[in-house]
UniProtKB/TrEMBL annotation:
EC number: 2.1.1.189
Domain of life, per lineage: Bacteria
Gene name in the database record: rumB_1
Protein name per the record: 23S rRNA (uracil(747)-C(5))-methyltransferase RlmC
Active site: C250
Lineage, highest ranks first: Bacteria, Pseudomonadati, Pseudomonadota, Gammaproteobacteria, Enterobacterales
Biological source species: Escherichia coli
Gene Ontology MF terms in the entry: 4 iron, 4 sulfur cluster binding; metal ion binding; rRNA (uridine-C5-)-methyltransferase activity
InterPro entries: 23SrRNA_MeTrfase_RlmC, MeTrfase_TrmA_AS, MeTrfase_TrmA_CS, SAM-dependent_MTases_sf, U5_MeTrfase_fam
Length: 291
């Protein structure tokens, strides 16, 4: 049996989407027959102002004109929809989204706020799935960093900058690296709002960026995908030996594997976060200190 956990105020959204799908001619994609247009509907809600981002993942642009024509009706029914896009995913594979994103609204980012830190969410930018727990995660990282003698840090695999924006102080130099340009645009917008002029965010591969540097800051914070940071970055960090490493991961197994590749460090602190309730998955954050 599959358990479903849906916020009650999402019900009117789903109720309006059902007739809209018919109006827009969005025939659901049939996996067996490889026919149809609508693959997924992705809905994101801001916890700070209740605004929503709605993304239609389609097989092609065939129904785009019809969708645009029907859109005013949906916006009238659901004024909380601030960002609406169409994502084109033409491949017959279990992939959530494709490379092409078509904006149907003038607003392109959803405003969020954790612990008085402004954050922005764009399509194709990674954002933690559980706002309440993510807020605790970022606040904990900030507390840990503030207790360390750190004036310069890297935030690798930084996404929209949640960790770095929480940890940074006006006199701290921070470089955030994330391969997704959409996420970096969000991070830069947040840094500008906070007036943090010593923060630099770049859309680059985190491992390639780090291993090209001839020196490291006192602290390197990493929040990689489930696969972990990998041996090349582990080898680089082991050789360059930053004084502190904070490692946050949704996969404790790959984190443990990576930490074994860092023999010169001891585990100083560990904390688990129930980021994915009712599942066996969780987020874990570890502070490593150079021995």
């Amino acid at each position: 049996m599959t358990a479903r956990f849906i916020l009650p105020h999402f019900a009117p959204v789903f109720a309006a989407l059902k007739p809209f799908i018919a109006r827009a001619g969005l025939t659901p994609y049939n996996v067996a027959r490889k026919r149809g247009e609508l693959k997924y509907i992705l809905l994101t809600e801001s916890q700070s102002d209740g605004g929503m981002m709605l993304r239609f993942v389609l097989r092609s642009e065939t129904k785009l004109a019809q969708l645009r024509k029907a859109l005013p009706w949906l916006q009238e029914q659901l004024p909380q929809l601030k960002v609406i896009t169409v994502n084109i995913q033409p491949v017959h594979m279990a992939i959530m989204e494709g490379e092409t994103e078509i904006y149907l609204t003038e607003q392109q980012a959803l405003a969020e706020r954790f612990n008085d830190v402004p954050l922005w969410i764009r399509p194709q930018s990674f954002f933690q799935t559980n706002p309440a727990v993510a807020s605790q995660l970022y606040a904990t990282a900030r507390d840990w960093v503030r207790q360390l003698p750190v004036k310069h840090m890297w935030d690798l695999f930084c996404g929209v900058g949640g960790f770095g924006l929480h940890c940074a102080t006006p006199d701290m130099q921070l470089t955030g690296i994330e391969i997704a340009s959409e996420a970096i645009a969000c991070a830069k917008q947040s840094a500008a709002e906070l007036g943090l002029t010593r923060l630099q965010f770049q859309a680059l591969d985190s491992t390639q960026f780090a291993t090209a540097q001839g020196e490291v800051p006192e602290l390197v914070l990493v929040n990689p995908p489930r696969r972990g940071i990998g041996k090349p970055l582990c080898d680089y960090l082991s050789t360059m030996a930053p004084r502190f490493i904070i490692y946050s991961s949704c996969n404790a197994q790959t984190m443990a594997k990576d930490i074994r590749e860092l023999p010169g460090y001891r585990i100083e602190r560990v904390q688990l976060f129930d980021m994915f309730p009712h599942t066996a998955h969780y987020e874990v954050m570890t502070l490593l200190v150079k021995q």
